[in-house]
Each structure stands twice: as C-alpha cells, then as structure tokens.
Amino acid sequence: MQDLTDLVAELERSQRQEDVDGFLALFDPSAVWVNGAGRRLIGLDEISEFTRGVLPGAMATGSVDYDVEHVAFITPDVALTGVRQQYTDLDGRPLAEDGAGSPTYVWIRTGSTWRIVAGQNTAVIAPG
Which superkingdom, per the lineage (predicted)? Predict the structure, then answer.
C-alpha cells in the first residue's frame, strides 16, 4: 500500500514541478486517462500529446495537493487509489470550489513496477 501512496506523491510532484517525463513515466503504455474536462485519452501516445501541451506552464499561478483517501486491491497486482485533489494559489491557499477534484487511478503491477492503467481526473462540482 505504501508503494501506491508514494506513487501518488510522485504524481503530485511531477504536476507541481511540471515534469512531463516524470508524469508520463507513471502510465502503462495501454492506459486510458479521462482528464478533468471529460476528454478520454487512450494509450500513452494520446496521453503524452495532451500532457506535453498542457502541463508546461500549468502551475504558473498555483499548485496542487493530493491526499490518498483509500486504496483497494482488486487483485494482488491490480489496485485502485482514490485521491482528494486540491488546487491552490501561489500562497498555498485552496482555490474556490472549482479547485477540487476526486481522481481515481487504477494501477497494475508488472514485476515490482506499478503503472496507471486507467485514471479519471474528475472535477468536484459544488451543489446548487
């Protein structure tokens, strides 16, 4: 379980530092990723093209914090992490309602290496 928590921390670090290659290294080549706007990206090539276009400069006005809320093992080599995501301003203050998310990542383990095989980066919509 700690391995997965550490990988979510690496995901956070790579976003904060706009480390495109570090971010992409977390994905399985066959991964499916749904971004916060609901766009489905299939395969590492599509995920890479999208990420290279949006991650550089994304943290110019703020940052992001991740908190692993739960880990569920589907099999010993397939796991799900549920994350609370909070975007912040440059002073570390949480952004308004549009700054929160509830990403879910499905990881697969090959040998000793875990990679994201599916992810849903869902925005949290305020009630009302």
Answer: Bacteria
